[in-house]
Amino acid sequence: MSTLLDVRDVSKRFTMGGLFGRKTIDAVMDANFSLSAENPEIFTIIGESGSGKTTLARMILGLEDPTSGEILFRGEKVDRHAGRAARLKFMSHVQPVFQNPFEAFNPLKQIERYLESTARRFLDTGDKAVIDRAMDEALQKVGLSLKEVRGRFPHEMSGGQLQRCAIARALIPNPPLLIADEPVSMVDASLRMSIVNLLKSLRDDLKVSVIYITHDLATAYYISNRLIIMQRGRIVEMGDARTVLDNPEHPYSRLLKASVLSTDDAGAGKLMTDAGMLDLATDSVGQAGRLVDRADGRSVRVYEGV
Ligand SMILES: Nc1ncnc2c1ncn2[C@@H]1O[C@H](COP(=O)(O)OP(=O)(O)OP(=O)(O)O)[C@@H](O)[C@H]1O
């Protein structure tokens, strides 16, 4: 089995402030996981705000250097400081999809201009016919076409359509890996599932692997093959999505699941969290512990004396 992506003991520490009053934040601590090149999957990173999901994604994209550890893509180290040609080659293989499609596109620029400049850059051609074909092919993959998009400005499309255009842009170089950071959180709830289903079809039909970053357990459960749950920079549980989410073991994973507001709870006006679980989850913050493999294939962080 060959490896597409290998995240090895990766940590990221941010240091802020001057000589006095220096503050450090361990955004990611000892992250380890890998994706296979042969079996495309949706690999989900779940965690609440500030758990380190975006920092991890930025390191995988080579936008941020790990403080320690390394990230390999097809055996080669992801290097932010690699030369322009090497960066372009890497970016043709690993493409980001960002959270807010309205921010990703300049309101004064027609959408096709973005697609066009991406095609020009990655296909290294100025041939209009080749560029148009590449744009149309990418748009078709997300259920749109160049005919529909041509001449349109971002405000002339729905959030869902615009996110599709952003995904089409990312697909132009035919990357085997997409990093989608909360791709549905800014899209209307009614259109969200169509984007989630699109990610699923990219995996199933086009064999694209997706790192799906979210704090939404429902969509994670629906589309993920495997997932990791992050608490304050540490992976606390990792494994098959259904195994983990059907029966989470780490206190923080259990808390996350229990905190999802069900319509039953909403009626009674209370969340189903119990204080004991909250205490257990809080106690684990700041403790290193170690990830232990379980018989069902998951890994769970356990702590000394627990
Ligand atoms: N450039 C930076 N400088 C200093 N601290 C940072 C920087 N980027 C992130 N952090 C800190 O690192 C921690 C993890 O942030 P990160 O954005 O990775 O979390 P997240 O899980 O993606 O959160 P969200 O869901 O809110 O985007 C936070 O405490 C954040 O304040």
UniProtKB/TrEMBL annotation:
CDD domains: ABC_NikE_OppD_transporters (cd03257). One of its GO terms (molecular function) is ATP hydrolysis activity. Residues 5-257 form the ABC transporter domain. InterPro entries: AAA+_ATPase, ABC_transporter-like_ATP-bd, P-loop_NTPase. Keywords: ATP-binding, Nucleotide-binding. PANTHER family: ABC-TYPE DIPEPTIDE/OLIGOPEPTIDE TRANSPORT SYSTEM, ATPASE COMPONENT, ABC-TYPE DIPEPTIDE_OLIGOPEPTIDE TRANSPORT SYSTEM, ATPASE COMPONENT. This is ABC transporter ATP-binding protein. It comes from Devosia ureilytica.
